[in-house]
C-alpha cells in the first residue's frame, strides 16, 4: 500500500525570472504519481529559499509565509487523513483541500469568497464587487453548472445586445474568466469554457472619451463655491485637468518629489494602477492649486469625490461630471494645444499608444461635429 508524501516547491517549470513571479506549490506524491496544488503565492526565484522553504527578500514575506503555512497545515491534515484510511487516489486531493465549504457555495458566492481572499488592491476589490453585483442582476450564471460554452456565448450576446462597446464587453469576460480559472484550479469546474469557445472575444478599444470642452472647464474654474468640501473637490478636479493624473495617483501626489529646473517644476512617478512611469511639468494652474493648500493636496475618498463632482457638474450643466473626466480632459487639451501624441502617452503613463489615440479620435469627432453645424450655411 502506497503512502502519500508532501513537499513545498517553487518554480517547478523553471519559468520564473527576475521580472516574472511564479507559483509556490504543494506537491503530493504516491507510488510515482504526483499532484500539485497552488498556495496562491507567486514570487520571483530570488525571493524564494529552497533550503528553508520560505519567501525571502520581499516586503510581503511575512504575509506570504503565513499563507503558505496555513495551506500547508491543511495539506498535512489531508495527508494524515488519506494515509490513515489507505486512500492513494491523488485526484481526490483538490476536493479534500477545499473541503465541504466550497461545495456548499454557488458560483456567485464563490466569486465573492475569492475576491475577499485574493491579495489585490481596494480598487480591484471594488471592480470585483461591481462584477458580482452584475451577475446577481443578470441571473443566468448562478451555479457552477452554468459555467459552460453555451452560457458564455449567451452572456456575450446579451452584452452586445445592450449596445456596449467591445472594450466593455471584454472587461465583463475578463472578470468572469478570472473566477472561472480559480474554480477550475479548485476542481469545482471540470472544463474551462473559455478554452473551447467557437468565437474569439476581441479586446476592443474604447472609441471616444468623456472630456470637458474648454468653456465648461473655464466655468468650473470660475465657480464661487460656498462649501469647503465642494471647493476642495473642484480644486482636485482642476489639478487632474492640469496634470492628467488619475484619482489614485492624485491621492498620492507628493510635491516634495518634484524636481526644479529653470524656475519650473517637474514630477516623475509610477502609476498606482499599472506601475508605469509617467512624467509632467507642473503648469501655472497646477502650481496655483497647490499654493492654495500649502503644496499638500486634500484627500477625499473616490466615492465622496465623485458625489461632490456630480453636484459641481449640475452647476455648469455637465450632469455626468466624474473624476476620470479630469484625466480625459487633460489629455484632450494637451493634444488640442499641439502636444505630440507620444508625449501625451508619456504624461499619462499609458502602456500602449493605442490608449492615447482615443483622445485624438475624440478631437476628430469634435471637428466632424463642427462641420455638421455649418454645413449648408454658406
TrEMBL record:
<comment type="similarity">
    <text>Belongs to the 'phage' integrase family.</text>
</comment>
<dbReference type="Pfam" id="PF13102">
    <property type="entry name" value="Phage_int_SAM_5"/>
</dbReference>
<dbReference type="InterPro" id="IPR011010">
    <property type="entry name" value="DNA_brk_join_enz"/>
</dbReference>
<dbReference type="InterPro" id="IPR050090">
    <property type="entry name" value="Tyrosine_recombinase_XerCD"/>
</dbReference>
<dbReference type="InterPro" id="IPR013762">
    <property type="entry name" value="Integrase-like_cat_sf"/>
</dbReference>
<protein>
    <submittedName>
        <fullName>Tyrosine-type recombinase/integrase</fullName>
    </submittedName>
</protein>
<dbReference type="Pfam" id="PF17293">
    <property type="entry name" value="Arm-DNA-bind_5"/>
</dbReference>
<dbReference type="InterPro" id="IPR035386">
    <property type="entry name" value="Arm-DNA-bind_5"/>
</dbReference>
<dbReference type="Pfam" id="PF00589">
    <property type="entry name" value="Phage_integrase"/>
</dbReference>
<dbReference type="InterPro" id="IPR010998">
    <property type="entry name" value="Integrase_recombinase_N"/>
</dbReference>
<feature type="domain" description="Phage integrase SAM-like">
    <location>
        <begin position="107"/>
        <end position="195"/>
    </location>
</feature>
<dbReference type="InterPro" id="IPR002104">
    <property type="entry name" value="Integrase_catalytic"/>
</dbReference>
<keyword id="KW-0238">DNA-binding</keyword>
<feature type="domain" description="Tyr recombinase">
    <location>
        <begin position="300"/>
        <end position="362"/>
    </location>
</feature>
<keyword id="KW-0233">DNA recombination</keyword>
<feature type="domain" description="Arm DNA-binding">
    <location>
        <begin position="14"/>
        <end position="86"/>
    </location>
</feature>
<dbReference type="InterPro" id="IPR025269">
    <property type="entry name" value="SAM-like_dom"/>
</dbReference>
Amino acid at each position: 500500500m502506497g503512502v502519500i508524501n508532501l513537499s513545498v516547491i517553487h518554480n517547478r517549470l523553471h519559468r520564473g525570472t527576475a521580472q516574472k513571479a511564479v507559483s509556490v506549490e504543494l506537491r503530493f506524491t504516491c507510488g510515482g504519481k504526483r499532484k500539485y496544488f497552488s498556495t496562491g503565492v507567486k514570487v520571483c526565484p530570488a525571493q524564494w529559499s529552497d533550503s528553508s522553504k520560505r519567501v525571502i527578500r520581499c516586503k510581503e514575506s511575512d504575509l506570504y509565509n503565513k499563507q503558505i503555512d496555513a495551506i500547508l497545515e491543511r495539506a498535512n491534515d489531508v495527508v494524515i487523513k488519506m494515509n490513515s484510511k489507505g486512500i492513494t487516489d491523488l485526484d481526490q486531493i483538490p476536493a479534500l483541500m477545499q473541503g465541504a465549504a466550497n461545495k456548499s457555495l454557488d458560483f456567485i458566492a464563490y466569486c465573492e469568497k475569492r475576491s475577499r481572499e485574493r491579495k489585490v488592491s481596494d480598487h480591484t476589490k471594488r471592480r470585483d464587487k461591481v462584477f458580482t453585483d452584475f451577475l446577481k442582476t443578470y441571473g443566468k450564471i448562478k451555479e457552477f453548472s452554468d459555467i459552460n460554452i453555451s452560457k458564455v456565448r449567451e452572456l456575450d450576446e446579451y452584452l452586445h445586445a445592450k449596445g456596449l462597446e467591445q472594450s466593455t464587453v471584454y472587461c465583463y469576460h475578463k472578470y468572469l474568466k478570472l473566477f472561472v480559472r480559480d474554480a477550475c484550479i479548485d476542481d469545482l469546474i471540470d472544463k474551462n469554457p473559455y478554452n473551447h469557445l467557437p468565437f474569439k472575444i476581441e479586446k476592443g478599444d474604447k472609441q471616444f472619451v468623456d472630456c470637458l470642452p474648454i468653456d465648461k472647464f473655464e466655468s468650473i474654474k470660475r465657480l464661487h463655491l460656498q462649501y469647503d468640501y465642494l471647493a476642495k473637490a473642484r480644486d482636485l478636479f482642476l489639478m487632474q485637468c492640469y496634470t492628467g493624473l488619475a484619482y489614485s495617483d492624485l491621492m498620492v501626489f507628493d510635491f516634495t518629489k518634484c524636481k526644479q529646473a529653470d524656475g519650473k517644476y517637474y514630477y516623475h512617478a509610477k502609476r498606482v494602477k499599472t506601475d508605469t512611469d509617467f512624467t509632467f511639468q507642473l503648469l501655472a494652474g497646477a502650481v496655483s492649486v497647490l499654493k492654495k493648500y500649502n503644496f499638500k493636496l486634500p484627500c477625499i475618498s473616490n466615492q465622496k469625490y465623485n458625489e461632490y463632482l456630480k453636484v459641481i457638474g449640475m452647476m455648469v450643466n455637465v450632469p455626468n461630471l466624474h473624476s476620470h473626466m479630469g484625466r480625459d480632459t487633460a489629455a484632450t487639451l494637451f493634444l488640442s494645444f499641439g502636444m505630440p501624441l507620444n508625449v501625451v502617452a508619456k504624461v499619462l503613463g499609458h502602456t500602449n499608444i493605442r490608449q492615447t489615440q482615443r483622445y485624438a479620435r475624440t478631437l476628430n469627432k469634435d471637428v466632424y461635429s463642427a462641420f455638421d453645424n455649418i454645413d449648408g450655411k454658406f
